[in-house]
Amino acid sequence: MSDFAGRSGQAWTAEPNHSAAAAPAAPSEGSAGASKVPEVTAVFWIVKILTTGMGETASDYLARVLGPVPAVASAALVLTAALVAQSRTRRYVPAVYWFAVIMVSVFGTMAADVAHVALGVPYALSAAAFAAALALVFVLWRWTEGTLAVETVAGGRREAYYWTVVMATFALGTAVGDLTAATLGWGYLPSALLFAALIALPALAHRLFSLPPVLGFWWAYVLTRPLGASFADWAGVGTERGGLGLGTGPVSLALAVVIVAAVARLGAAGRRAPQRVG
């Protein structure tokens, strides 16, 4: 994905020119000012994939240790606090933003798992439902705001749309990853390799066929979830399930340490650099 991980991330997020016939949308509050999401660079994609893996294994670990209901309730409370903290920032703050992403990852995993385990919804059906919900939010966001470019997310309605989409992508990715690994019986490592190949396609399509950058960004963003989760599951689950048997707790802890180090580095770099404007 090197084509899309430039210094400013504009190759991924720049919105294509609209035709003169397109109806302009009124900007929402918070549509101008300092962006509250990170620049789309190689580091962004690395940390994003790490958070998806941690969310998958941490969700499984917490559900086993605390029990499904207390785990879901606790994750919902912490997620709410994380999103409130993110909404109150006036700019992108790495620690606040990435903590919110981690909690969305944990809760999004639980949402998909609860639908399957507790309610008996097949992963194929839940994946289709989450995909439809994601498409609906995209349509509403594009209709009301006129753009899906993430560098324009500076608060207000756009930020609400953004986090709704993020939540939906995590739930969808969880369902799709479990569909290929468990329901279809492909296993975690083959699924991870499949998603690794699929996530490279937007960059190739952009270079060869001029795929619209915003479409390419969200295509890759959705796939980070099953990619990271499949690799994390492969590392954490037992050998009888085709994994390495490292345990979901140790895998979660290891990923958390790497994520904290990366986010701390991003925070230090942000303090040295002038703030960008969305």
Describe it:
- The model is unreliable at 1-32 and 274-278 (pLDDT under 50).
- This protein has nine helices and no strands.
- The chain is mainly alpha-helical and 278 residues long.
- It has helices spanning 10-13, 42-66, 68-88, 94-117, 123-145, 156-183, 188-209, 213-236, 248-272.
- 71% of the residues lie in helices and 0% in strands.
- The protein has one domain.
Brief summary:
The chain has 278 residues and is mainly α. 71% of the residues lie in helices and 0% in strands. The two termini are 22 Å apart.
Break the fold down into its secondary structure elements and pairings:
Elements: H1 10-13, H2 42-66, H3 68-88, H4 94-117, H5 123-145, H6 156-183, H7 188-209, H8 213-236, H9 248-272
Order of helices and strands: HHHHHHHHH
Number of beta strands: 0
| Tally of structural domains | 1
What proportion strand? under 5%
Radius of gyration: 18 Å
Helical segment count: 9
Low-pLDDT ranges: 1-32, 274-278
Molecular shape = globular
Q: How would you state the average pLDDT, rounded?
A: 83
Question: How far apart are the first and last residues' alpha carbons, in Å?
Answer: 22 Å
Main β-sheet description: none
